[in-house]
Amino acid sequence: MPDLSNARVGVIGGSGLYAIPGLDQAEELSLDTPFGRPSDVLRLGTLQDMETVFLARHGRHHQLLPREVPYQANIWAMRQLNVRWLISVSAVGSLQEHLRPRDMVVPDQFIDRTQQRPQSFFGDGCVAHVSLADPFCPRLSELLAEAAASAMPAGHHLHRGGTYLCMEGPAFSTRAESLLYRSWGCSVIGMTNHTEARLAREAELAYASLSMVTDFDCWHNDHDAVSVEMVVGNLKANAVATEPILNRLMLSLNEQRPSSAAHTALADALITAPEHVPPKTRERLNLFTRSYWGSFPQD
Ligand SMILES: CSC[C@H]1O[C@H](OP(=O)(O)O)[C@H](O)[C@@H]1O
Ligand SMILES: Nc1ncnc2[nH]cnc12
């Protein structure tokens, strides 16, 4: 198990969350990575004494489509900054009657319908197959749900568990698709979290999502089909609720620093023997593989 005593928490803010006002003494870091530049600068500061790194997923002015988000660079940068717990704050549509706009969901499963995303950090002569059976870290999700339940303002409701359908976008779903996803038992729909969670697992980061419901997508007879206006209106209310929840979460994370199966996800996932990995690939993956294979090039 890695040493978590100095590990940081990462927060990736999605639609509507472009900064955390209370991030004390935030320092801005402009990083380059072997996988390109992250979505924006990374803001490094403390929340409740917990070292926290914030990144706006779509850029602070929301300039990146879901498929244009540099997911690999974002996750690599987080890991480089010793982030080992990663929280996504995201806007989602509801696929179930009981999940209402302004409710919050901490999902525990995914169905992936994306087509144009990076699948992996691996390839180019290095093969790894991580487990995604439980794509969200159960312990981190539990702490996030506890924080949300105790710190969310009145008028919001929390739902633990549920399946996040990750679609390609950027257009919202057709009604037939929305009804299909409902028939599959999905809870919420968004365009980002699966890609991020899959890469976070390969980077050995524990991942959890605070999914904030902004609309009923387009399946509900009594509600208009989702529009950006609807999403943004509900997001503003939801974004205000985020900071007290994150503050509460940081208190428990700082106290518990929970280990996660995700922190050793590569232990039994790497197939290619290091001596058969091309040097360029080995160097690019060094951040993730060095605890198993030693540093490359050697220090
Ligand atoms: C602005 S509505 C669609 C957009 O919002 C969600 O983004 P994020 O997950 O980053 O909060 C959804 O996934 C879409 O990208
Ligand atoms: N209905 C919806 N579909 C996909 N992504 C969303 N983000 C917020 N609402 C959404």
UniProtKB/TrEMBL annotation:
The keyword Glycosyltransferase applies. Transmembrane segments: none annotated. It comes from the Bacteria. The keyword Transferase applies. One of its GO terms (cellular component) is cytosol. Keywords: Glycosyltransferase, Purine salvage, Transferase. Catalyzes the reversible phosphorylation of S-methyl-5'-thioadenosine (MTA) to adenine and 5-methylthioribose-1-phosphate. Involved in the breakdown of MTA, a major by-product of polyamine biosynthesis. Responsible for the first step in the methionine salvage pathway after MTA has been generated from S-adenosylmethionine. Has broad substrate specificity with 6-aminopurine nucleosides as preferred substrates. Belongs to the PNP/MTAP phosphorylase family. MTAP subfamily. This is S-methyl-5'-thioadenosine phosphorylase. The lineage of its organism: Bacteria, Bacillati, Cyanobacteriota, Cyanophyceae, Synechococcales. The gene is mtnP.
